[in-house]
């Protein structure tokens, strides 16, 4: 059970984050407000909050002003997204039941055994790191990272308990912010752009279109620095380098003005050294429908049914397609209506289209990043 101080902080957090969501501000503002309140209960010397694409676990934005210095970021991305190594690696954390973890505790006190500690924390004179997953129903929407220096006490059980209490309301608010702000149908005036990154994640080439698009993304690092690149772009580039030749990594990132951009990265084996290409362009509505439905908290089966209903399928057609009983379908529809806040199929369609500007939907089941996936098994 959380201590009284942490418990009162959570109650205040719920109210504060609801206010952020109701004013239509984005998910980055949500995690920023939440982290600021968390720091009053769990102090840290370095901290950052990262938003993640639930389907790829790649960065889509966040708050980095008090985070890691620029010089360590290439190695940090390499450990996190390429090597995917370490006891508290992001992907390892998503497979655990607990949403919080202290690196010192995870290593059993032998923190020097961690490459992440040796290469990232130790050079910065940091002695421990606390990670907090923003996760709900198996989907991870973000990560809050707190670090303490050698002059500060390591994170203890009370810190972890307070962090656990902050995780759930923050995750709910992030998800609600996506529902409230929705998606957009804006387009880039001159089409997609291309960025070329070298092995050190430095920008070596950048098309004029890409420059304009990059200017709309939060850098996540030192603003205005020449050759700097948003962390979301560097994360998807790191994922492409980690894959097999020909692999394309995909992600999405939200701009300062609330629009979504799609990122596609792949590696080119050129002389004298390989480079990574990143294409940046407006995300089509069809790429975001699964993320929108996920944001409402729908299960995989409920998302599939909602997609079919939104496309105008009758109950008989849905029953034949999914091989389920009418009672099962009605039960799913009731839960869908409740989560979206509507009372009928017609209201469901009106709500999704009016809130999220989705002119048309594909029939195939979609991953959160818009890729077609295999049909789900029958219930």
Tell me the layout of helices and strands.
Layout (H helix, E strand, L loop, with lengths): L3 H19 L4 H15 L4 E7 L6 E5 L9 H11 L6 H4 L6 E3 H4 L8 H7 L4 E11 L2 E11 L7 H25 L11 E5 L5 E4 L1 H7 L16 H12 L6 E6 L5 E9 L6 E8 L2 H11 L4 H11 L4 H8 L3 H15 L4 H12 L23
Antiparallel strand pairs: 1-2, 1-5, 3-4, 4-5, 6-7, 6-10, 8-9, 9-10
Helix pairs in contact: 1-2, 1-7, 2-7, 3-9, 11-13
Compute the number of strand runs.
10
Total helices: the number is 14
Full CATH superfamily name of the largest domain: GAF domain
What is the overall silhouette?
Answer: globular
Radius of gyration: 21 Å
Q: Any idea how many domains?
A: 3
CATH topology of the largest domain: Beta-Lactamase
Fraction of residues in β-strands: 15-25%
Strand order, biggest sheet? Answer: 2-1-5-4-3
Brief summary:
The chain is α+β, with helices and mostly antiparallel strands. Helix content is 42%, strand content 18%.
Polypeptide structure, described:
The protein is α+β, with helices and mostly antiparallel strands and 379 residues long. It has three domains: 4-181, GAF domain (Beta-Lactamase), CATH 3.30.450.40; 193-283, Beta-Lactamase, CATH 3.30.450; 286-356, Winged helix-like DNA-binding domain superfamily/Winged helix DNA-binding domain (Arc Repressor Mutant, subunit A, Orthogonal Bundle). The chain contains 14 helices and ten strands. It has helices at 4-22, 27-41, 73-83, 90-93, 103-106, 115-121, 157-181, 208-214, 231-242, 285-295, 300-310, 315-322, 326-340, 345-356, and strands at residues 46-52, 59-63, 100-102, 126-136, 139-149, 193-197, 203-206, 249-254, 260-268, 275-282. The strands form two sheets. A five-stranded antiparallel sheet has the order 2-1-5-4-3, with helices on both faces. Strands 7-6-10-9-8 form a five-stranded antiparallel sheet. α11 (300-310) packs across α13. The longest helix has 25 residues, at 157-181. The protein starts with a helix and ends in a 23-residue tail after the last helix.
